[in-house]
Every structure is written in C-alpha cells, then in structure tokens.
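Dear Dr. H.,

I hope your travels went smoothly. While you were away I took the liberty of generating a structure for the chain from your last submission, since the lab meeting agenda had it listed for discussion. I wanted you to have the full record in hand beforehand rather than looking at slides cold. The sequence, exactly as received, is reproduced here:
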Amino acid sequence: MGKQNRRRRTGRRPQSGPSGGSEFWSTQKPADSSADAADIANMLMAAAIETARGAAAAATQCAATLAGRDRLTPQVEQGAHLAGQHIITRIFQNGWLPWDVHRAAQRHLDEHAIALLTDIIAAYMQPFAAAAVDETWREQLDQLGAVVWWSKSAPHLGQWATKHLFTPAEALTTVVQTLALLIRLPRLELIRPLPGTARPSTASRHHVDEKVLSRVRGLLAKAESTSFVEEAEALSAKAQELMTKYALDRVLIEADTAAPDLPGARRIWLDTPYVDAKAVLVDTVAQANRCRPIFSSAWGFTTVVGDEGDLEAVELLTTSLLVQATRAMIASGNQEQRSADSRSRGYRKSFLLAYATRIGERLTAAAEATIAESAESARLLPVLASHQLKVDKAFDTLFPTVRNRGVSFGNANGWDDGLAAADNAQLEARRPLRK
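The corresponding predicted structure, in token form, is as follows:
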C-alpha cells in the first residue's frame, strides 16, 4: 500500500570505514622477517582494512604469514596488542561506547571474537583511575564483564588462544576479523566523556528514585507476563503515568535550584528483524517522555536526547513494550483464517508500525492527562517549555544536520490488527496514580 506511518529524524553524515574516513589506519607492511611489534601491528591493520573491504582471504593469509608452528612469538603478540589498542582508542574517540561496540560485534562476529574484543576494551581501561571514568562507562564495562583476567607477566593473546583452544593461525585470524569490524564503524556523536576526562563533580548522573523504579518495573513485569493485551497496555499506561508524575515533581524542584540536570543522551539498540518498525516505537515512547530521538538505520540503534530521569523512563518502557508488541503480533498471527498472511514479513512489520503509532498516542495522552491533573499545572507549563528548549538545544548541538525519513507499511491486515491490539486497552476508566 505504501502509506506513510509516521516520520522520524535520522542522521545524515558521511559513512566512515574502509572506503572513507579510514585514512588514519596505517597500511605499512613489514619489509622482512625481522619485523618488530610496530611493523606487525601495521601488517595486522593493513589486513584488517582489506578484510573490511571484502577481501575474505586477507585475514587467513596474514595469519599464515605471522603465525609460528607451535606458538605465537612475543613480537607478534605485542603487535596484536598495539594494533588493538590503536584502533579501539580511535573508535572510542569517534563516539562509540563499550556497549555500542559490543552490540555491533554481536551482529557480525562469533563468540570468540566478541570475547577478544571485550579483552581489548579491558586492556584499554587499565591506565584510568576509577574516579576519572564516567558512570555510564563504568556501568557498561561491568555489564560486559570487561576485566583483566589474564596474567600480566605474559602477553594477552597467547593466554587468550590457550583459553579458547585456538592455534596461533586461528588466533591471528580472529584478531584481523575483529579489527576489521572496528575499522568499519562510522564516526558517532560523543555523548559521554572519555575515560580520563570525567570530573568527579559532574560525572554522577541524576537517577530516578529507586522506589519509583521498583514500582514501574513491577507494573511492566506484570504487563509482560499477562496474556491479555488490554491488561498489558493498561499496566504500561500506569507505568507511564507514574514516571510522568515523578518527572513533573523533579522539574519543579530543579526549576528552583541553581544547577538543574542538563540533558544527556543514550543509545538504544534494536534487535532484528523489523528494526525500522521497532525504531518507531522508540520514537513514540521518547516523545511521550519529553525526549528527542534520532535513528541510525545502518547500525540499528536510536540515540535519545533528554534529561537522565526521562531517559531511564524511555529505556524501561521501550524494553517492555517491545516484548509486549512482539507477543501481541505473534498472538494475532495465530488466527486460522489469515494464518499464511499473518506470518508474512509485510504483515508483521505493518502490525508493529500500527502498534507503535497507537501506543505512542496513548502514552502521550496518559502523560498529558497527568500534567493536566497536577496541582501546579499552571506553573508546570513554562517550566516544561524551558525544559524542552534545553533538550532541543542539546539535540541540535549533537545533530546539527538531520533529515526526516518516512516509514511505510504494505499490509492492510497487519496494520488493522496492530491498531486493534493497541486499542483494546480500557485506559479511560483507570484512576490516576497518586504519590
């Protein structure tokens, strides 16, 4: 049918990687067998560039040239370390966070290469004192389990190869393939301070009260566990009301302080398939919570700009609603009269687009009702307007050039069923939550 569902912002920037923006990767190769660690690092990076450009044999050929029969030489191990640290340093300077790198690796590398990449990140972090590392970085490193597990008395790569039962050639092939993925990563916006630059006075983020988060998580857990779509959406709407109520109280308090929370940003990665449709859901949840989203279709994540409390709400609600939307889509697909159609990609994408659109409308209505029912609604309006200006300024600073991108649906049954699933919630009869 090709009808537009909704429009959202997406970045327009040149793609960096092996075909552009990769000129800082050295391509110098060692001249003879007496090559030192720096020469070997250059050879590994040159092979990684060729691999990133599509030369599938480059990794194995480089590994065969460098690998010894029985073990890795110290020069080769040190060269691999230098290459990994050189490239990961540039990747982090280009705006990528540890979790971003991990999610990109999950889509393109096997478990052994992901483990190697985690170790490269852990080695990168060794020189930095904890006080000089941003809280987001610390949380993501903990989530990845990026720690130095290997003995510092010997090079890392040999210990890693022994742990994974890899031959020297297999280990070096994995090194080249891992570096090739990193070289492909485009430049992103720097949304958190780099390790070594975070200041203790400003590194700590404003968090939502744990009691509020506990209640929200409880509501969303019930929404995910119920088999009744209308009950799930009513519980999700209540979670939205509770987060909005908390956010309104917070902005009023911060309006009277000298140093209110400044807008921040988070990246929300989306699983395949139907990434475009899922991005619409993130978009609607973000806008309902006073945030600005922008979608990167090439890599499958949405960057959301807003203050930290609102970003936590977006992340919580999005994670839960994606589970609920998928369950509703599968349940709708069990109808015998449309079994073949309902299992098609067109149906499922259209279903998710419709579901996201209608859920966004309902979440926005829940948030607006909470604002209208506030005892200080008159005072809230200018405060929220000021808040929105700060978010818009932060967004425009990070993304000075953006364009709108339309998302279309091609299956009328999927669209209608998605709307029906989102419409089943009887939200009008609910009572607003009180603190």
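Two observations you may find useful: Residues 254 and 260 are 5 Å apart (CA to CA). The chain is about 60% helix and 10% strand.

With kind regards,
E. W.
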